[in-house]
Amino acid sequence: MNSLAKRLGITLVLLLMMFGVGHWFKQPAVLTEDALTVAPLLNPVIEVRLMSLSGSKPIPVQIAGRWKILDGSKPGHPLLHPGSGGFEGSLFIDSTGPQLGPYRTNSEHIIVETEAEEALWLDTFLYPGKLHIRTVREKTGRVSRLDLSLEMPLEDYVMGVVCGEMSSMQAGVHDALCAQAIAARTYALQKRGSKRGLRDDTFDQVFLGLDYRTTQAEAAIEATRGLVLQWEQALVPAFFHASCGGGTANAMEAGFSKKDLAPLSGTLEPACRTPRGIWEREVSAEKLDGLARRYRIGEWLQGISTIERDASGRLLEVRLLGDEEHEDLAGERLRAALSLPSMQLIEVEVQPDGSAIFRGHGFGHGIGMCQTGAVRMSRGGSTFQDILQHYYPGAELVPLTSELRYLLPPLQ
Ligand SMILES: [Zn+2]
Question: In angstroms, what is the span from residue 343 Cα to ligand 1's centroid?
Answer without folding.
Answer: 14
